[in-house]
């Protein structure tokens, strides 16, 4: 989902659909899988992931904030390396 993200589109509906898809993807991961997923991304992918995490905080769904905090923690650790 990150590799096909519509970052440069002006179509707001497409961006919102991508955000919804990313939130579903992020919340489907088990806690033990998050670090490996973050480490599989390049720097640009991690930057885009962080943007999706912040967007997810703006429009939380049931239990999404707790999961997004776990993603945020792993991305911050990655950024500190």
Automatic annotation (TrEMBL):
Q: Which PANTHER family does this one have? A: ARP2/3 COMPLEX 16 KD SUBUNIT P16-ARC
GO biological process entries: Arp2/3 complex-mediated actin nucleation; regulation of actin filament polymerization
Name of this chain's protein: Actin-related protein 2/3 complex subunit 5
Coiled coil ranges:
none
What family does the entry list? Belongs to the ARPC5 family.
Superkingdom assignment? Eukaryota
To which species is this protein native? Ciconia maguari
Any one Gene Ontology cellular component term annotated for this protein = Arp2/3 protein complex
């Amino acid at each position: 989902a990150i590799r096909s993200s519509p970052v440069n589109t002006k179509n707001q509906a497409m961006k919102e659909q991508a955000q919804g898809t990313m939130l579903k993807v992020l919340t489907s991961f088990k806690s033990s899988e998050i670090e490996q997923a973050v480490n599989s991304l390049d720097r640009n992918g991690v930057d885009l992931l962080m943007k999706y995490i912040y967007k997810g905080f703006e429009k939380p769904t049931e239990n999404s904030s707790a999961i997004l905090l776990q993603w945020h923690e792993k991305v911050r650790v990655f950024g500190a390396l």
